[in-house]
Amino acid sequence: MGVPSDDDAVLIQKGKKPGEPYVITVNCPDKTGLGCDICHIILEFGLYTTKADVSTDGIWCYVVLWVIPHPSSPVVKWANLKERLLSICPSCTTSFYWNPPSPRPSSPPIYLLKFCCSDRRGLLHDVTRALDELELSIQRVKVTTTPDGCVLDLFFIRDNLELLHTKERQNETCEQLHAVLGESCISCELQLAGPQYDNLLCISSMSSVVAEELFRCTLSDKEIRSQALSPDVRELKKASVITDNSLSPSHTLLQINCIDHKGFLYDIMRTLKDCNIQIAYGRFSTVQKGRRELDLFIRHQDGKKIVDPEKQEALCSRLKLEMLHPLRVVITNRGPDTELLVGNPVELSGRGRPRVFYDVTFALKSLGICIFSAEIGRHSAADREWEVYRFLLDENCTFQLSNMVIRNQIVDKVRRILMGW
């Protein structure tokens, strides 16, 4: 029997008719968290999964995803997507000949992109979109506006193509940025990040009241009422997560029914990965009346079914929380100013959720709201690590930011963009 080629591990097939989904097939040796890694990349490329099938025997994995580009996403570079997916697939040769696993590749180095230019509405999102098109992943941001109307932006980025050490790639990045900024660009520098990167890992201090609201474990009644414009938020509380041990002698059936949202499959996969749960088979059905159904046959990492009622309840509660509340959005006062905060849990591996900064800046741009300052950092609360995005909003806009109705509309718009509603 011949050994499968590593290049055949990922196949991407275009739909036969315009508007039909692309079909992505991943056929490779299995590894812990592979499903989560695949879903993370799919979300990062701005793709929406219409349905999916997953099957594995613990040694070999077969995944089929039907995906379409999200309307707010830039043009998808399918060849680059295939390369990214191939990069996370274990080698077929290693699986067949039992070679010792190769050392885990180190993460691409962090670079500091620093530029100064005149401020304008939508600037931050335009820069974010340009970096996204270049496949430069934003790790941290520090954005400030000077009294004379200029902005000084520090973007700490990783190159998903791992070519930023070359002069050609650096020039391409700066040229793309100059094209976005135009004549307003005063300076632009790109260099390896130094110790100053570590100093931006933690965000500025926040009040205990804001932290409690941002990191609470459930959607509060107050939050539900404030989102009266968004019936989707009320529908979130109707999610169903149940387990059944009667259908398989070796696996527990996990059945999930919930309102659909962007990153739904990723939220399930990252939670199961962090809980050390293995998936043997799964089917992710198409949307029915705005809701998703997901059937998974799962087991503990030790190969045993989940029979302990307390462990079943803990897993169901954790999954429901991650589905109902994957992203937290709060608007509050920061001294005399208005601040928007967005938080999402970080995987145990330390990886954050993709495209959050992109979506928030897009929502604020569509509302016509300028951003006075912005930062991304990490915060520990409720026994886990969170990625927190903080935006100080410019009061010189068409909105009366002190008005509670206006604030609720801003939160509603940002949440709807983040959730894909």
Biggest β-sheet, characterized?
8 strands, antiparallel
Task: Please trace the helix and strand order, writing H or E for each element.
Answer: EEHEEHHEHEEHEHHHHEEHEEHEEHEEH
Give the number of helices. 13
**How far is the first residue's CA from the last residue's CA?**
48 Å
Q: What topology, given as strand order, has the largest sheet?
A: 1-2-4-3-11-12-10-9
Shape: globular
Radius of gyration: 22 Å
Strand content: 25-35%
Structural class: alpha+beta
The number of strands is 16
GO molecular function, one term: amino acid binding
Organism: Olea europaea subsp. europaea
InterPro entries: ACR1-12, ACR2/9/10_N, ACT-like_dom_sf, ACT_ACR9/10_C, ACT_dom
Keywords: Repeat
Give a quick rundown of the structure.
With 421 residues, the protein is an alpha+beta fold.
Write structural notes for this entry.
By secondary structure, the protein is α+β, with helices and mostly antiparallel strands. An eight-stranded antiparallel beta sheet has the order 1-2-4-3-11-12-10-9. Strands 8-5-7-6-15-16-14-13 form an eight-stranded antiparallel beta sheet, sandwiched between helices. It starts with 9 loop residues before the first strand and ends with a helix. It is globular and about 70 Å long. 33% of the residues are buried. The longest helix is centred in the C-terminal third of the chain and has 16 residues, at 309-324. Residues 95-105 and 223-229 have low confidence and may be disordered. Helix 4 (123-133) runs antiparallel to helix 5, helix 4 (123-133) packs antiparallel against helix 12 (356-367) and helix 10 (264-274) packs antiparallel against helix 11. The chain has helices at residues 34-44, 78-88, 92-97, 123-133, 167-181, 196-199, 208-215, 221-226, 231-235, 264-274, 309-324, 356-367, 404-419; strands at residues 10-13, 22-29, 47-56, 60-69, 111-118, 136-145, 150-159, 185-192, 240-244, 252-259, 277-284, 291-300, 328-334, 337-345, 371-381, 384-393. The chain contains 13 helices and 16 strands. This is ACT domain-containing protein ACR. InterPro entries: ACR1-12, ACR2/9/10_N, ACT-like_dom_sf, ACT_ACR9/10_C, ACT_dom. One of its GO terms (molecular function) is amino acid binding. Residues 112-195 form the ACT domain. Binds amino acids.
